[in-house]
Amino acid sequence: MVNFSLARQIRRPKAKAAPNHGQNYARSKYPLGDESEETNQRAQTNTAIWACLSVLLPVLSVGINAQVLVLLAVGIPIGLWLYRSNRIGFDYLDHGGDFTLSQRLAYRVDYSFSVVPYVKAVTLMILTGALIMSSGMAIYLTSDDSLAESLWEATAGVGLDWTFVGDDDSSSYRVRTIGVLTNIGGLVVTALLLGIVSDAVSMYLDNLRKGSCRVVENNFTLVIGWSSKTIPMIEQIAKANISEKGGVVVILAERPKEEIEVDISANESKIGALGTRVVCRAGSALTLGDLRKVSVSNARSIVVLADPFVSEDQSDVRSIRILLSIISALKSNEDQKPRPPSLKVTVEVSNSENAPLIRSIDPSLIEPVIANGVIGRLLVHTARQPEVESVWETLLGFDDCEFYFQNWPEVENLTFGEVLYRFREAVPLGIRREGKGSVILNPTDDTLIERGDEILVLAEDDDSYLPEKLSLFEPDHYSEDDLNNSLTDIFQKKSKSMSMKPARFKKLLIGWRRDIANLVQVLDKLLLPGSEFHILSDIPIEFREGYLSRTRGGVVEPCSNLKVVHHIGDAKTRKDLEKLDLASYSSIVVSTFSGDAQQINVEDRDSQSIVTLLLVQEILKTCPSTQDVVVVGEIQDPRSRRMILDSGMAQAIIATNDLIAKSLAMVSEDSHVNRVLEDLFNVSGNEIQVVDCSLYIKNGEVLSFFEVMNRVRSARSIAIGYRRGNGELKLNPEDKLVPLTWTKLDRLVTLSYMEQDFDSPES
Question: Would you state the pLDDT for residue 339?
Answer without folding.
Answer: 77
